[in-house]
From TrEMBL:
GO terms for molecular function: RNA-directed DNA polymerase activity. Residues 35-130 form the Domain X domain. InterPro entries: Domain_X. GO terms for biological process: homing of group II introns; mitochondrial mRNA processing. Coiled coil: none annotated. Residues 153-173 are annotated as: Disordered. It comes from Daucus carota subsp. sativus. It comes from the Eukaryota. This is Domain X domain-containing protein. GO terms for cellular component: mitochondrion. Residues 163-173 have a biased composition (Basic and acidic residues).
Length: 173
């Protein structure tokens, strides 16, 4: 009867056993850097569950539960929803996709909601509040609520668009 020596099938154990190996693991890690990406489908599903995106198509819609609150509260709520995924996924490799979702889906939902509330259209709301949904107090001229503009959204996080070689590493504080 002979006793067979078994080794685990890992590169380190094979190298320790004198079988070589171990080289392929180093070459893979050096050739393919680790990429951590934000779950885009999950983000869209959550926005759909909150009522910001249509159930049938990925189009922004008005948020029905916000039609009874002030326009400033609508914009502040939408800005909070927009900043949340940007800060959570700021270190992900596809942050530019998250920014695109925020910049399009949530911004337009923030425009459609006051339009629905006032029984108007987005075309009539944009000249009143602008695309950035600036709500200004009529008497004092003080800004009550504002959705972050595209430049401010670009400064959140440090994700890089593969089509754009420059990327920002600053954050809004």
């Amino acid at each position: 009867m002979s006793v067979r020596k078994l080794s685990l099938y890992t590169p380190a154990s094979r190298k320790a056993a004198g079988e070589g190996g171990g080289h392929w693991a180093r070459s893979i890690s050096s050739e393919f850097p680790i990429q951590i990406e934000a779950p885009i489908k999950k983000i869209l599903r959550r926005l759909r569950d909150r009522g910001l995106i249509s159930r049938r198509r990925p189009w922004p819609i008005h948020v029905a539960c916000l039609t009874n609150v002030s326009d400033g509260d609508i914009v502040n709520w939408s800005a909070g929803i927009a900043i949340s995924p940007l800060s959570y996924y700021r270190c992900r490799d596809n942050l530019y996709q998250v920014r695109t979702i925020v910049d399009h889906q949530i911004r337009w939902s923030a425009i459609f909601t006051p339009a629905h509330k006032h029984k108007s259209s987005a075309r009539n709301i944009i000249p009143k509040y602008s695309k950035d949904s600036n709500i200004v107090n009529q008497e004092g001229g003080k800004t009550l609520a504002e959705f972050p503009n595209s430049i401010e959204l670009g400064k959140l996080g440090s994700g890089q668009d593969p089509n754009n070689k420059e990327h920002s590493t600053t954050s809004l504080v």
